[in-house]
């Protein structure tokens, strides 16, 4: 008599997908030289459960759809790192965008014949969501009511198309668009965020960007290989393989619509002054375009942050955007200034960027070459 083979249900013979994801993220952490601290571990477990739901809903309709995730907490607590590790291991149709790159793509799609109307905006949002199950949105923040309107449109469309979101932010939803002149106008969108997403706080005690780790896992190795140099003597720069370009190498670049005078530009290196880069009418779109073609940046003549005044506030905000873009694109960055370049200072006077803590955290990844360090190295070499 023929024996009918029996099979265990697939759910019993296959490995738990959530467990596979959490173990994978833990492995990425070990490869990067650290272990997940408790709040990171809890966030990783929540991401893993979310990932299992995403892959599971392709096999059978669940009783209810997964809820999007909103990861928030202070700077440097590993939100982006966790998202990138999870992104690399999630088997789904997915797309990752950074806040600045998102708005560049959104605005670039609204300059056609229908620019300025709701149809063009909707088409841009549709293009960003097209063909994806999960949209990963890094560094979510809102300081401008105009950006808030775009965000509202994105959330509505994602909900209608059943596209799930994984968001990282330094702000809890209630703290978005903190400007009291506009905050009340954004409250309906804040409520929509809390209705659509589960909030996951990552609030460990340490800013992990301020501690060196290896570059074998998700991270920003090229950005970290840059340096902050003060006062920028020829000997200091020469040790780093940097040599100030002569005036004959100066040229004008047009990354988008705004011309920028730079001191040198070749396929690998961009050398530009702080004034030329940040004090004109440059935009984040310019910085993103330049980052696509230059993998090493040198910004010199950087002013002393503590000496900023009201007139310099727009330039410092553009500088903040530059750092965000270069960090996200993993560009090697050298900053050169005559005075002390210290961003761990009070920003409550409104001169320095609102998100100064994030910028200080990111710049802490860069090594430092200052006058005292250079003299100590010379003395050690001489002895």
UniProtKB/TrEMBL annotation:
Organism in which the protein naturally occurs: Paenarthrobacter aurescens (strain TC1)
Gene3D superfamilies according to UniProt: P-loop containing nucleotide triphosphate hydrolases
Keywords: ATP-binding, Nucleotide-binding
GO annotation (BP), single: cell division
Descriptive protein name: ATPase, AFG1 family
GO CC annotations on file: cell division site; cytoplasm
Key word Plastid present: no
Xref: InterPro entries: ATPase_AFG1-like, P-loop_NTPase
